[in-house]
Amino acid sequence: MARYTGASCRMCRRESLKLFLKGDRCYSDKCAFERRSFAPGQHGQNRFRKVSDYATQLREKQKVKQIYGMLEAQFKLYFERADRAKGVTGANLLILLERRLDNALYRAGFASSRNQARQFVRHSHFLVNGKKVNIPSYQVTAGDVITVKEKSSKNELIKDNIEGAVRRGVPSWLEIDQTKMQGTVKALPNREEITMPIQEQLIVELYSK
Question: Which residues of the chain have pLDDT under 50?
Answer without folding.
Answer: none
